[in-house]
Amino acid sequence: MPISDEALQNAKNNFIAVSGEATVGQAIAALQAEGGQPWWHLLVKQDDGSWGVSRFTDLYQSLERMSTASEVQLGGRRGLTTATAVDRDSMETKKAQALALKSPGGLLVVTVAGMPVGILAEKVSRGGLSISSAKLNDLGGKYVNLKDYGSILLSSSRIAGRSKPDAPAGNLKG
Prior knowledge:
The chain is α/β, with parallel strands linked by helices. It has one domain: Roll (CBS-domain), CATH 3.10.580.10. About 25% of the residues lie in helices and about 20% in strands. The chain is built from six helices and seven strands, in the order H-E-H-E-E-H-E-H-E-E-H-E-H. The chain has a seven-stranded mixed β-sheet with strand order 6-5-4-3-2-1-7.
């Protein structure tokens, strides 16, 4: 039995997934385009096929003093936690949640055909830095039109939630 839609669609599991070529500004523009919040998770597809993860609030905290933060490329960025990824059909929900608890950052990336269709964030704390969307927008820099950048947005919880359970989210091409 695959990992359930119900578990993947839990609000704590909201995410934006981008390619490693994406900049901070592009990732924030993707978050805005999807109606996301600063507490959402950011997944970055690394060159080696692994996934790096951070919350947008943590990204803000690490970059807030940089004047060129919007231009920082996310691939290979220090500060991203390497996430464990599993195919959606490889295990049932409870086993996946247990694996997420043991994984770095308490997060498991759930994929279909190598593309994220959801995450399971099991170690969610409500403490820490709270930032407004306006501050995050400032970090993102000037307006970014995602159509100018091809397929940096690989998936999001909004896209995956609209996809058929057995189909990958695919690339969003602006």
